[in-house]
Amino acid sequence: MDLAPYRIIRSSADLTGYDFSTKRVLKTATGGYDGHGQVVIRDEESLATARDLADKTLCVLEDFVPFTMEISVIVSGNGTDLTLFPVQENIHRNNILSKTIVPARISQDLADRALQMARKIATEVQLSGTLCIEMFVAGNQILVNEIAPRPHNSGHYSIEACDFSQFDTHILGILGQPLPEVPFMPQLSCSMSLASTWKKLRSTSQNILAPTFISMVKKKPSITVRWDM
Questions:
Q1: Could you report how far apart the first and last alpha carbons of the chain are, in Å?
Q2: Where are the beta strands (DSSP E) in the chain?
Q3: Cα–Cα distance between 25 and 209 in angstroms, integer?
Q4: What is the rounded CA–CA span in Å between residue 28 and residue 9?
Q5: Which of 58, 86, 134, 188, by CA, is between 20 and 30 Å from 160?
Q6: 0.90 exceeded by the pTM?
Q7: Looking at the predicted structure, is the pLDDT value of residue 132 above 70?
Q8: pLDDT on residue 194
Q9: Distance from CA of residue 13 to its chain's centroid?
Q10: For 180-192, what is each residue's pLDDT tens digit?
Q11: Could you give the 3-state DSSP secondary structure of residue 92?
Q12: What is the DSSP letter of 14?
């Protein structure tokens, strides 16, 4: 299992004599999401912020790695068996997921390897419920980035694009029930998040929202509009 170079940070003392020659990010070992619980260390000011975070919780200091794409795999388990969703391509803006494209636009070989890695991780933890494994594609290499032990925003497309959503398989998994194969609609599926623009929309007249989305759906009946708050 390939990972970006990293080391465990237990307190600010582990950041003494910090070397700025390599760009790194400090991440909380648990509880992080959408850029929360992360500090990119660029200078003394961000290092001070990282020190404060390191004194509050267990962290991981990870080297930045050049990558061509971020992908993820949703997997559900019932303690014995697993079911996997297609490999997803994720595009972020300001550390927040903006768009998910399924299936990811990668080779079949890379997709198969990503699924194998997800299956191995889920098997090792004896997964019950739904888990998302986030990965980087770096050339012909796949690096595991983060693990989200829950239904994930990159998997919301499954509500409309699959016979069973990640929420369906999550409930079946934690109840120890048999897990179905997850048929995926053959056409390309794209899920876009409006979370980053919600404040901007909310600051304008509420009356513009309904007509805007009604117009979108009329132009493209296959569009589903859903607020994920």
A1: 34
A2: 6-9, 24-28, 38-41, 59-63, 69-78, 82-84, 88-93, 96-102, 128-138, 141-148, 189-192
A3: 37
A4: 9
A5: 134
A6: no
A7: yes
A8: 52
A9: 30
A10: 998 776 554 555 5
A11: strand
A12: G
**CA dihedral sign of residues 122, 31, 106, 160:** positive
Q: Which span out of 98-102, 142-146, 185-189 was modeled with the highest average pLDDT?
A: 142-146
Question: In the chain, how many H helices and how many E strands?
Answer: 6, 11
Under a CB-based contact definition with an 8 Å cutoff, are residues 28 and 59 in contact? yes
Q: Does residue 26 contact residue 35 with C-beta atoms inside 8 Å?
A: no
User: How far apart, in whole angstroms, are the C-alpha atoms of residue 130 and residue 144?
Assistant: 17
b/e per residue 53-66 (b: at least 16 CB within 10 A): bbeeeebbbbeeee
User: Cα–Cα distance between 124 and 126 in angstroms, integer?
Assistant: 6
Going by pLDDT thresholds of 50, 70 and 90, the confidence category of residue 163 is confident
Return the ∠ at Cα 199 (arms to 104 and 98), rounded to 5°: 5
Residue 139: both structure tokens together: 């050339």
**Confidence at residue 81, expressed as pLDDT on a 0 to 100 scale:** 97
Q: Do residues 74 and 129 make contact, with C-beta atoms less than 8 angstroms apart? A: no
Alpha carbon 228 to chain centroid distance?
A: 15
Q: What are phi and psi of 20, to 5 degrees?
A: -85, 0
List, for residues 208-225, the tens digit of each pLDDT value: 555 555 565 556 555 565
Asked if the model's pLDDT at residue 227 lies above 70, the reply is: no
Q: Residue length, the chain? A: 229
Of 147, 132, 157, the residue nearest 228 (C-alpha) = 157
Residue 60 is encoded by which pair of tokens? 């991981």
What would the two tokens of residue 215 be?
């117009």
How many Cα atoms within 13 Å fall on the side-chain side of residue 189?
20
